[in-house]
Amino acid sequence: MRILIVTHVVRKNDGQGRVNYEIVLAALAAGHSVTLLAAGAAPELVQHPRVCFVPIGESRLPGKLAQYQMFAWRCGAWIRSHRQEFDVIHVNGFIAWARADINAAHFVHDGWYHCGFYPFRLLRSFYDAYQVIYTLLNIGCEKWAFRHAEVIVPVSHTVAAEVRALGIAPAQLQVIHNGVDVDEFAPGTPERTRFGLPSAPFMLLFAGDLRMSRKNLDTVLHALVHTSANVHLAVAGILHNSPYPALAASLGLTERVHFTDMVMDMPALMRSVDAFVFPSRYEPMGLVLLEALAAGLPVITVRTAGGAEVISPRSGIVLDDPNDAVALAAAIERLASDPEYAHRLGQAAREVAGTLSWQAMAERYLSLYEQVHARRTAQSLPAGCATASVEL
């Protein structure tokens, strides 16, 4: 097949970019050719003889609103000029003013806007007004993009529900969960000293953007107050402009909360802790959650975190209310006080991750490509040709 993938970047160290990176690798391994319409792509892909990289330069217009619209206009114009050269056109959300065969929905702005935890208000400040306008414009653009795609691929059932809320027919949706590197993220020898963590306590890990309230570190800290002193928390994320070190100090948790700042070697950090806590107030599909499962960590999360849907009581603890610090504390204590139970959850978590490898994810996308291509080919044949070919 001749495949066109349209996105901003295709590389390993980017969430959506990694998804597309793995799809490209699988497509090349299967003998297909791939064209990448993007602002950037990994050098090892660009150098491949069956990859054509068409760079779309970043606009110099001020603000993301104008820049994204210019990017989408340029991509749309290129697709319309080259559409007949491809068997499958795969876009990601609103990325181009053009029709597509497949649209992968990684994030739905309408879901974020109506989730109940949207932090911005139109009349509060200029910054808030800009963010609201930016979100509303994206809602409109995403509706257009989804309505101009044959198949929409939400990355979780949480995202699928948000897409359906836009009026998209369920028959158009096919959920494909994001993947995880089950070899890179795997149980192994702890390295607590390397990360400045004490060796004795039961160590939880929280990882995420420490400047965003939706990640919900505040509830984790309030829950920690209600747990035994043997329970500590490692917090991985950029500390600049984060309010959480001050909150931890005000709660008397300075000795029990260990801020590591940005960690580049997350697999090693995950091998160094006992459990992962992820009560995000809103999450389409958290890659870090899948990484924790692959690392064999017992996971405590909440239903508002996309990805929680893959966790059963056998492989983790899923709470109903992301703001219930008491319930979160009880779940933490259960893990900390029962090492055998925590170990069983971790083993089952690793098994779940095995079904969500990058290879498994990429193969699901390729299978969908083949279905779409076969359907388009059948539709283009004269009447009776498809039947004749089957009879042969």
Automatic annotation (TrEMBL):
It comes from the Bacteria. Signal peptide: none annotated. The keyword Membrane applies. Coiled coil: none annotated. InterPro entries: Glyco_trans_1, Glyco_trans_4-like_N. Residues 14-183 form the Glycosyltransferase subfamily 4-like N-terminal domain. The chain crosses the membrane at residues 21-42. Residues 193-351 form the Glycosyl transferase family domain. Keywords: Glycosyltransferase, Membrane, Transferase, Transmembrane, Transmembrane helix. It holds the Pfam family Glyco_transf_4. This is Glycosyltransferase family 4 protein. It comes from Paraburkholderia metrosideri.
